[in-house]
Design goal:
heterodimer, A: 774 residues, alpha+beta, Alpha-Beta Plaits, Calcium-transporting ATPase, cytoplasmic transduction domain A, Rossmann fold, seven-stranded mixed beta sheet, six-stranded antiparallel beta sheet, 27 strands, 20% strand, B: 45 residues, mainly alpha, 2 helices, 62% helix, 0% strand
């Protein structure tokens, strides 16, 4: 909250405000900022606070729009960067609170002809509903009118000239004209509005050629109806017109629905939390309140089928919870009193009361959403390339259609205009610019469902080209800790006693070995430890723990040591595994042998990767012995132990210089530089706050298989991207010459354009299937 | 054939009636969530 005062002081300064929409100005209240923005860490203390806002844009149709909005935003002083994604219709704006206000840059977007909405505005979903309804209504009008116009046109196709009475022909034309009016005025309205806006701003976008085509066809046909002796002859094209309008609208509508579904996993996750929840009142009864009014410490009741709104502990009731979207764990998990539930997971079966421990921004859910939002607004390299091509391409098409009209004009002006229209309608840079982001977003959505977050879409491309995978050992191939494998005790000391004593010492320490001993003791819990006293406990770094212990139940009084052989005054024994010892005043008391907890699916994951032709390597900071042993268990051919992070990085660099493309899989905690040095990086997100995991991919669950699936998915994604780009290029290369030669009627052009962009989205859809864990 | 002078204008009017029905259906929310109704039988309440 420390950054807010900076904004407040600057609020009092006179800012140029005339012409700014009142409703936008409400957003200038710093209290509102947090609803859709987050402060960025300022580089220097004195630097003014920068905020990063998520915005939804209405009225976007194609990639060219994204570029326009970005330009509009960047032209506002104080806006430091703007990234807008056409595929998700969302954007990220970084702005300086000292120089600008949300209302100013939002107004810039509005003046460019789009409607910006704060991404977390609860109105956003309402407006989206209104927009989908209107779109469907436009499509319905176009569809019904098209059908009827076709009926009126049919007789003229099947009869010879003169066979129908001229009066009837005229009547049919007028009827078709009447039914084309609503299509032109209402269904085509977005095309015209966008084209007009673009003309005013002196730029070209997707809708300009299309609107031009519609307008020309309507004018030519209207003249044909009411002035058959005019320059364009008596031909009418109402059937072609309504048909291509319908195809274009249908294409856009389907595309929107598919896109909603592919980006669906993202959306599903982002809109997971309910608006309200039942909170316990002081008298124990429950009232329904808005989630934003909750405070830490409140008790809320969550009904089956609802989502948990906060992280916290279950106080009453038992249930099963679905955490699939947050951890990739697909089986429902049992949750009863004392268990933790996380915001965004679903309560499946029972009514539970939950204490609110963490809310809003602090929840893991919020971090995941922030990462996904960020990922969905970054633009992969190939998409940038396509966007750059789009504008000159459109300009060239306008020119081409003008030339074609000029060429055909002398023979038949009406026909010439229709050829020009066909060229305008058939060109589809949309397929080109959708090709990459549609596929990558679908893949990211699918991976999110199996528990892997994609932080940068670009990384999917890199990952697809990786030929070497390096695993870290602890926390990656193995779970974080150790488990007790074997123990031996002094004659006369029971196993449970020794374990209880070791645990009593270990309880104060956070070392993984200590945690393993405590866990083992808790699991057995055979010796009552009430009345024991552990005093002056002292942790010797890298060695163990020393303390004064009074444990009359097992006859131990005085100094007890737990740790390495050296610490316990014993001969170092040669053993494969990791050993710790326990000693008291009388000398050796017990030895514990621990082993690392290899993840269950490590072997399958390694096999899957090998099956893809990827070399799998293990680099560990642990001893060479331990690394080799674990590599053997996991089926990894080459392991190197005793590596410092610098060694790991050097090894990585050496491989990269040999021409390998290397991906690093680590726990994200102590191998940050190595992750950063790799071509692509995957981190397990359990151990670190997500926002600090500096990797391209974050695994949220506890399994290794999703990592292997990620590599498969990345390769599939790039294959789909290549197919999409090839299709878009081939379509345009074939369709445009056909249209120029006059072999493509306007309706076919509309159908072709709609199908070509639809195919791209459909192809991308294939990636949204859940990853297979074969 | 004179009947066509009546039928053709009538067909235009009919289209407007059908459009009105569609408008009613869309804005009553009939198409807002087409998958939900089928899945509802699987949910417990």
């Amino acid at each position: 909250m420390s950054t807010i005062p900076v904004g407040v002081t600057h609020l009092s300064e006179p800012l140029p405000r005339h012409g700014v929409d009142e409703s936008l100005r409400l957003l200038d209240d710093p209290e509102e900022w947090r609803e859709f923005s987050r402060p960025l860490e300022a580089a220097a203390e004195a630097a003014p606070a920068c905020w990063e806002s998520s915005v939804v844009f209405e009225g976007m149709h194609c990639a060219a729009c994204a570029g326009t909005i970005e330009d509009a935003l960047r032209s506002v002083p104080g806006v430091q960067s703007a990234d807008v994604s056409a595929a998700s219709q969302r954007g990220r704006v970084v702005w300086d609170a000292a120089l600008t206000q949300p209302s100013q840059w939002m107004d810039a977007v509005r003046r460019a002809g789009y409607r910006p909405l704060p991404a977390h505005d609860p109105l956003a979903s309402e407006r989206r509903l209104a927009e989908t309804r209107k779109m469907l209504w436009r499509l319905g009008v176009a569809g019904l009118c098209m059908m009827q116009v076709m009926m009126y046109a049919t007789p003229t196709y099947f009869t010879r000239p003169g066979e129908i009475e001229p009066n009837i022909i005229n009547l049919l034309r007028w009827a078709a004209w009447v039914l084309t009016i609503p299509v032109m005025l209402f269904s085509c309205q977005p095309f015209f509005a966008n084209a007009l806006r673009d003309l005013r701003q002196r730029r070209i976008s997707m809708d300009l050629p299309v609107a031009l085509g519609m307008g020309l066809t309507f004018v030519v046909s209207t003249l044909g109806t009411f002035e058959p002796e005019g320059p364009f002859g008596h031909e009418v094209y109402f059937d072609s017109l309504t048909m291509f309008v319908f195809f274009l609208l249908a294409g856009r509508w389907l595309e929107l629905r598919l896109r909603d579904r592919t980006a669906g996993a993202l959306e599903a996750l982002m809109h997971r939390l309910p608006e309200s929840v039942e909170r316990q009142r002081a008298d124990g009864s429950f009232e329904r309140v808005a989630v934003r009014r909750l405070r830490v410490g409140d008790v809320v009741r969550v009904l089956p089928g609802e989502a948990f709104v906060a992280d916290g502990v279950v106080l009453r009731g038992t249930t099963t919870a679905d955490e699939a979207l947050l951890t990739g764990e697909s089986t429902p998990l049992a949750r009863s009193i004392g268990d933790t539930v996380i915001a965004g997971s679903h309560n499946l079966s029972g009514v539970v009361e939950q204490r609110v421990d963490r809310l809003g921004e602090d929840t893991r859910y919020a971090q995941i959403v922030a990462l996904m939002t960020e990922a969905s607004t970054t633009k992969p390299r190939l998409a940038r390339l396509a966007d750059r091509v789009a504008k000159p391409f459109l300009a060239a098409m306008l020119l081409a259609s003008g030339l074609a009209v000029a060429w055909w004009w002398p023979s038949d002006p009406g026909h010439a205009v229709m050829i020009g229209v066909a060229i305008l309608v058939v060109t589809c840079p949309c397929a080109l610019s959708l090709a990459t982001p549609a596929a990558m977003l679908a893949a990211a959505g699918s991976m999110a469902r199996s528990g892997v977050l994609v932080r940068h879409l670009q990384a999917l491309e890199t990952l697809a080209g990786v030929d070497t995978v390096v695993f870290d050992k602890t926390g990656t191939l193995t779970r974080d800790g150790f488990v007790l494998a074997r123990m031996s005790t002094r004659p006369g000391v029971a196993r449970g006693q020794a374990l209880a004593l070791a645990a009593a010492l270990a309880r104060g320490s956070l070392h993984p070995v200590s945690r393993a001993l405590v866990a083992a003791a808790d699991a057995e819990a055979t010796v009552p430890t009430a009345g024991w006293r552990v005093e002056a406990a002292e942790e010797v770094a890298g060695q163990g723990v020393r303390a004064q212990v009074e444990a009359p139940a097992i006859g131990v009084h005085g100094a007890v040591r737990l740790g390495s052989a050296v610490l316990c005054g014993l001969e170092p024994a040669s053993s494969e595994g990791l050993q710790v010892h326990l000693a008291d005043g009388q000398g050796w008391l017990a030895s514990f042998e621990l082993r690392e907890d290899l993840r269950d699916d490590a072997k399958t994951a390694v096999q899957t990767l090998a099956g893809l032709g990827i070399r799998v390597r293990l680099l560990s900071g642990d001893s060479a012995q331990a690394a080799d042993r674990l590599a053997g268990l996991a089926g990894i051919a080459e392991a190197r132990g005793g590596c410092t992070p610098a060694d790991k990085l050097a090894t990585l660099r050496a491989w990269q210089q040999d021409g390998h493309s290397v991906a690093m899989v680590g726990d994200g905690l102590n191998d940050g530089p190595v992750l950063a040095g790799a071509d692509a990086s995957v981190a397990f997100g359990r151990s670190v706050p997500l926002a600090r995991a500096q990797s391209d991919f974050v695994v949220m669950g506890d399994h290794l298989m999703p990592v292997a699936a990620l590599f498969v998915k990345a390769r599939d994604t790039m294959r789909v991207v290549r197919q999409n780009l090839a299709w878009a290029a081939a379509y345009n290369a074939v369709a445009i010459p056909l249209a120029m030669a006059g072999w493509m009627p306007a309706w076919a052009a509309g159908l072709g354009m709609a199908t070509s962009s639809l195919l791209v989205v459909l192809n991308a859809m294939r990636l949204s299937r859940p990853a297979e864990f074969a | 054939m004179d009947i066509l002078y009546l039928l053709i204008p009538l067909s235009v009017v009919l289209v407007f009636f059908i459009l009105a029905a569609l408008w009613w259906a869309i804005y009553r929310g009939q198409f807002d969530d087409v998958e939900r109704e089928g899945e509802r039988i699987l949910e417990h309440d």
